[in-house]
Design a protein that fits this description.
Blueprint: H1 10-31, H2 39-57, H3 62-95, H4 98-108, H5 115-130, H6 133-151, H7 155-172, H8 177-186, H9 190-216, H10 226-238, H11 247-257, H12 262-280, H13 282-288, H14 295-308, H15 318-324, H16 333-351, H17 354-364, H18 369-387, H19 390-407, H20 412-424, H21 434-443, H22 447-450, H23 455-470
Length: about 475
């Protein structure tokens, strides 16, 4: 701290955070599940302005604050580019039938004799394919809730199975925005982050499926599966579906296993999806093309727009339409807006010393790796409680604890996994969080009712804490990187 700058006190550090909590609460109250589409961004930027005003009182100049904002946003630019490219990949993979084929084959494994476990696995497969727990819950999840009601089975357990599978797929998918955000905040690489998360995610989903299988023992299974069967039939009508269509998925996984950079890997996946669309879905492309255009020009335009703005494929019901429509870079603009707003707030808090003041008390008691990971997970959960937003629960703890992990010689992947183990998975357990409110709105089951059965969301943070205290699979920096 230079002579003309005063160190902030705890009250000054708390004022922007209190302002953020009040404004985010107002945003959720006014806009509900749509609060992340503008309301939360304004709250973040106004809170950043409050922090900047306090910093001026402490001797900082606007130029210093502005440079801090630029530096803070630059941390997330890699993730922003990847997220935009993910939008293109989703667009071409929908158009080419890759995502619909994964949904089609996922529904094949549904067996009423193990309905809860099957629901979890199906949602995991679909969320892995599309990178969105929300879309999975709002489409296949709604259908599975209807089937459970028709079978006379527990909708609370079914909702827990749907959310467990959806969040596993969301966490492990390179198409997910939170999965891209966590490594960007912590300073690691996307596919390295996903591989490292597998040490907690796969044991957690396996344990979850076992528990759902046990819960399903002896359950009556006189089910009417006509809703899901009709969905399969219509998918096969709209798209040419065969196992060969899934080949680009193998290419993407192969490049990830070979540790190729995420941005070119996803770009290659998007381009291969475009080629696959031309080869395997020519009839669909012609139906989407503008009337009057030639087959070549019209097809080229449809594929181009799939990369840029996504696709809109109409089905017989709104649920299926929303499942097979979307994508494109344009669909990711709101997520980018939210990330930039969150990084702006975090950057102002960090540059002006307000963030460091907030965590002084926490870090005084942190002496071991286990304590550090526990503190990160509790802070992420607390941020979900207070700010009602999973993006904030990733960004704020990420900024707060990043240097602490470096000082303990821990690899950034340890931080990124801890952020996902708290910020991402616990969000759906909180009724007033945007994720919990959304799940309630689409599934019709209150979060506190399905929480005891959302096994994956509880097991993941517990495993992360256990690993921290036992030093199991805790990566450390090489001496030259410390």
């Amino acid at each position: 701290m230079t002579e003309n700058k005063k160190a902030p006190n705890y009250l000054q550090a708390l004022i922007p955070l209190i302002g953020l909590i009040l404004m985010l609460g107002s945003s959720v109250y006014l806009f509900g599940e749509d609060s992340s589409y503008g309301g939360n961004q304004i709250a973040l930027l106004c809170s950043a302005a409050i922090a900047a005003l306090i910093s001026f009182r402490n001797g900082y100049t606007w130029q210093e604050v502005e440079q801090g904002i630029v530096d803070g946003i630059s941390v997330a630019l890699g993730a922003v580019l990847i997220i935009l490219m993910v939008g293109s990949l989703i667009g071409t993979w929908l158009l080419s039938g890759i995502v619909p084929a994964m949904i089609y084959y996922g529904l094949e494994i549904l067996d009423p004799s193990w309905f809860y476990a099957a629901s979890c696995v199906i949602c995991a497969i679909i969320a892995l394919a599309i990178g969105s727990s929300w879309t999975t819950a709002a489409t296949i999840g709604v259908a599975l809730i209807g089937v459970a009601m028709g079978m006379g089975m527990s909708v609370e357990i079914t909702a827990g199975a749907i959310i467990s599978g959806a969040y596993f797929g969301d966490k492990m998918s390179p198409l997910s925005d939170t999965t891209n955000l966590a490594p960007a905040v912590s300073g690691t690489e996307l596919f390295a982050h996903i591989r490292y998360m597998s040490w907690t995610s796969f044991p957690a989903i396996i344990l979850s499926v076992i528990l759902f299988t046990i819960l399903g023992f002896g359950a009556e299974s006189a089910a009417d599966l006509s809703k899901l069967e009709s969905m399969q039939t219509e998918l096969a009508t709209i798209f040419n579906i065969s196992p060969i269509i899934l080949f680009p998925l193998l290419i993407l996984f192969a490049l990830a296993i070979m540790k190729k950079p995420a941005l070119p890997t996803i770009f290659i996946g998007a381009l291969v999806g475009a080629v696959w669309a031309v080869i395997f879905q020519p009839d669909l492309i012609q139906t989407l093309a503008r009337s009057g255009s030639s087959s070549i020009v019209g097809g080229f335009e449809v594929v181009w727009l799939a990369l840029a703005t996504g696709v809109e494929i109409n089905a017989s019901n709104d649920d299926l339409t929303s499942l097979i429509s979307g994508g494109g870079m344009g669909s990711m603009v709101n997520t980018v807006w939210l990330i930039i707003s969150a990084m702006t707030f975090g950057a102002v808090m960090e540059t002006t010393g307000l963030l460091q003041k907030l965590i002084e008390g926490i870090l005084k008691s942190v002496k071991t790796t286990g304590n550090l990971i526990l503190s990160t997970i509790l802070t992420g959960f607390g941020t979900n409680l207070l700010t009602a937003d999973q993006y904030m629960a990733i960004v704020l703890p990420g900024r707060m604890f990043r240097n602490a992990y470096k000082k303990q010689g821990l690899d950034p992947r340890v931080l990124s996994r801890s952020l996902e183990s708290s910020g991402t998975v616990t969000s759906a357990l909180i009724p007033w969080n945007t994720c919990g409110a959304y799940m309630f709105s689409v599934l019709g089951v209150y979060p506190l009712a399905y929480a005891p059965y959302a096994f994956f969301l509880v097991i993941v943070p517990l495993l992360a804490i256990i690993y921290g205290y036992t030093n199991f699979k805790i990566l450390r920096l090489e001496p030259e990187h410390q």
